[in-house]
C-alpha cells in the first residue's frame, strides 16, 4: 500500500501497509485483513474499497468491484467497508464484506483507501483516494499482475 498522487493522497506521503483478501468457506463473505501505517489520525469512518483496473494512477476511473444483481455497492463506509486508525494513524483489523463476485475475480484488482468524511464530505470519492495497491496473490511477486 502506498500513497496516491491525488491531492488527498499528498496529505499522507509516508502511508504504507498491506491488505490481504480471503474468503469464508462456501463462497461466503470476503475477509479483508489490513494494516495501515502513517494514515489518517483517529479515523472511524475511513473507507476501503476494491476496484477494477490495473494501475493505481487510474483509480479515479475504476469501477467498484461488485455484482449489482446480487448486492448494492458494499464498498461504502456505511455498508461496513470501513477501517479504523488510532491517534498515530495506525490501524489493523479485518472487514467482512459480501460483494457477489468470485474470489478469483479479485486477483490483481485495486484496493483503495479513503480519508474521513469529517474533513471533506467528498473524501470517499474515487478521485480522492489516499492510498492504493494491487491485490497480488499470496506467494507471488510484484510482477505477477503484469503477466496475469
Task: Please provide a written account of the structure.
The protein has 148 residues and is mostly beta strands. It is 3% helix and 28% strand. The protein has one helix and eight strands. The strands form two sheets. Strands 1-8-7-4-5 form a five-stranded antiparallel β-sheet, with no helix packed on it. It has a three-stranded antiparallel β-sheet with strand order 2-3-6, with no helix packed on it. The protein starts with a strand and ends with a helix. The model has no long low-confidence stretch (mean pLDDT 88).
List strands and helices in order, with pairings.
Elements: E1 2-3, E2 16-23, E3 30-37, E4 46-51, E5 82-83, E6 91-97, E7 110-114, E8 131-134, H1 144-147
Antiparallel strand pairs: 1-8, 2-3, 3-6, 4-5, 4-7, 7-8
Task: Report the major sheet.
Answer: 5 strands, antiparallel
Globally, the shape reads globular
Helical fraction? under 10%
Instruction: Kindly name the structural category.
Output: mainly beta
What's the rounded overall pLDDT mean?
Answer: 88
Cα-to-Cα separation, first versus last residue: 20 Å
**What fraction of the residues are assigned to beta strands by DSSP?**
25-35%
Number of strands: 8
Strand order of the largest sheet: 1-8-7-4-5
SSE arrangement, N to C: EEEEEEEEH
Radius of gyration: 14 Å
Q: How many separate helices?
A: 1
Low-confidence stretches: none
Pick out its properties.
8 strands; three-stranded antiparallel beta sheet; mainly beta; single chain; 148 residues; five-stranded antiparallel beta sheet
Amino acid at each position: 500500500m502506498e500513497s496516491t498522487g491525488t491531492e488527498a493522497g499528498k496529505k499522507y506521503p509516508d502511508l504504507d501497509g498491506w491488505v490481504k483478501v480471503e474468503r469464508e468457506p462456501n463462497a461466503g463473505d470476503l475477509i479483508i485483513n489490513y494494516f495501515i501505517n502513517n494514515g489518517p489520525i483517529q479515523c472511524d469512518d475511513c473507507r476501503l474499497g476494491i476496484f477494477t483496473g490495473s494501475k493505481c494512477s487510474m483509480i479515479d476511473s475504476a469501477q467498484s468491484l461488485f455484482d449489482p444483481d446480487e448486492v448494492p455497492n458494499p464498498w461504502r463506509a456505511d455498508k461496513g467497508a470501513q477501517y479504523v486508525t488510532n491517534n498515530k494513524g495506525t490501524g489493523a483489523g479485518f472487514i467482512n464484506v459480501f460483494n457477489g463476485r468470485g474470489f478469483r475475480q479479485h486477483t490483481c484488482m485495486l484496493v483503495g483507501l479513503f480519508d474521513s468524511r469529517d474533513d471533506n464530505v467528498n473524501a470517499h470519492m474515487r478521485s480522492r483516494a489516499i492510498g492504493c495497491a494491487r491485490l497480488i496473490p499470496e506467494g507471488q511477486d510484484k510482477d505477477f499482475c503484469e503477466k496475469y
